[in-house]
Amino acid sequence: APAPPPARHHFNEPGEVEALRGNLLAWYDRCKRDLPWRALAAAEPDADRRGYAVWVSEIMLQQTQVATVIDYYNRWMQKWPTLQALAQASLEEVNELWAGLGYYSRGKRLQEAARKVVSELAGHMPRTAEDLQKLLPGVGRYTAGAIASISYGQATGVVDGNVIRVLCRLRCIGADSSSPAVIDRLWDMANALVDRSRPGDFNQALMELGATVCVPKAPLCGECPVKQHCRARHRKLFGKPVPVSDIEDCGVGDCPLCPPATEPWDSSLGVTNFPRKAAKKQPRAMRTATCVLEQRSCRGAPKYLIVQRPSSGLLAGLWEFPSLPLPQDLQEEKEREVLADHLQAWMGQPVAAKGLQFIGEVIHIFSHIHQTYVVYSLHLDGDVTLDPASSPSRWVTAEEFHASAVSTAMKKVLR
Ligand code: SF4
């Protein structure tokens, strides 16, 4: 068992936990946002369907804003209202619906897991956080806790980015909030705090507080339902840590949850002193040449060649304009030559490097890659027959392109 957190970072005043739960839940009942997955989970009597509805929302919400997710969620649940329906979908359909939501492996893994539930678990979702995490691919500790508490009423906590921020502020935790030692302590805290009779609502309330009130840059402390329990706010208002009965201050430098001695409390930051993170690794820079091949014929709208990416790795299985990663510092002339060779392999006919027209550069930031697409275009007259032996490729109109499983970056390239 992990060592208990230093006493200053506990919820250790008599009645404090009960008061915090009560205040938070009362605020949630009054102020919670109306979200489609909440309505579905509340109205759904079937436990498996309820678990599925929450699961889909949790996977979509990873790394993605609520406002963006709503439309995708509604379309997904309309198309695949049950695990069984999703298990029968093709990966192409899943990728098409997911297109634009980012982090594409999420959709693929959700579908793989649905197939597993149908084929190996007789269509029944596991009912506890432990089993959900153990049995479902792509379901980590957070998602398992969220599904189990919201759908099945298990009294288990959750820790996501919002919860990290709120707890670190409530308890003045200033050590690196991405370090395993701090994360472990936050899980212990979340499990101890969660309301035993309304665990799902409590967890959603804590996350909602982080998303709407205890926001990263300018938290609305005046409106906060748990402000009287917040030690960061106390420190901001009174200029010193909250006095805690019978407890000595943490010794500077040796408390695993306090800010490091080299980065003490900064009064100009107020409550946003917390949480703190170690400096992020810079994303890797990549350059990729891409060519919008446009086929014009006298019969109808222009068509564009798209090709399918490999089934693993970045943007697995998605469609894109023929593209080629470039070494850094390649001269433009050389760039054209290697791209022309690459196009020739797709089209089975020679492509003159001089015919490639440079259009511009498109920058797209993936989580760990700073990608620059160097965009060329080439107009072809007449029909081009693709080599069926090469990897999947097809000609599409602009309308078909947008309905295909293409990434947001490729839509930028076409624009
Ligand atoms: Fe966050 Fe402010 Fe509430 Fe503390 S009082 S939990 S910093 S919003």
Structure description:
With 415 residues, the protein is an alpha+beta fold. It has two domains: 7-213, Endonuclease III, domain 1, CATH 1.10.340; 284-414, Alpha-Beta Complex (Nucleoside Triphosphate Pyrophosphohydrolase), CATH 3.90.79. Helix content is 43%, strand content 12%. It has 16 helices and seven strands. The chain has helices spanning 16-31, 36-43, 47-61, 66-79, 83-88, 91-98, 105-120, 129-135, 141-152, 161-170, 180-193, 199-212, 231-238, 332-347, 398-403, 408-414, and strands at residues 284-296, 303-308, 319-320, 323-326, 357-365, 369-381, 393-396. Strands 1, 2, 3, 4, 5, 6 and 7 form a seven-stranded mixed sheet that branches. α2 (36-43) packs antiparallel against α3 (47-61), α3 runs antiparallel to α4 (66-79) and α3 runs antiparallel to α9. The radius of gyration is 26 Å and the shape is globular. The structure holds iron/sulfur cluster. Iron/sulfur cluster binds next to α10 and α13. It catalyses: Hydrolyzes free adenine bases from 7,8-dihydro-8-oxoguanine:adenine mismatched double-stranded DNA, leaving an apurinic site. It is found in: Mitochondrion; Nucleus. Residues 60-212 form the HhH-GPD domain.
Short description:
Keywords: 4Fe-4S, DNA damage, DNA repair, Glycosidase, Hydrolase, Iron, Iron-sulfur, Metal-binding, Mitochondrion, Nucleus. Helix content is 43%, strand content 12%.
SSE layout and pairing:
Blueprint: H1 16-31, H2 36-43, H3 47-61, H4 66-79, H5 83-88, H6 91-98, H7 105-120, H8 129-135, H9 141-152, H10 161-170, H11 180-193, H12 199-212, H13 231-238, E1 284-296, E2 303-308, E3 319-320, E4 323-326, H14 332-347, E5 357-365, E6 369-381, E7 393-396, H15 398-403, H16 408-414
Helix pairs in contact: 1-12, 2-3, 3-4, 3-9, 8-9, 9-12, 10-11, 10-12
Bound molecules: iron/sulfur cluster.
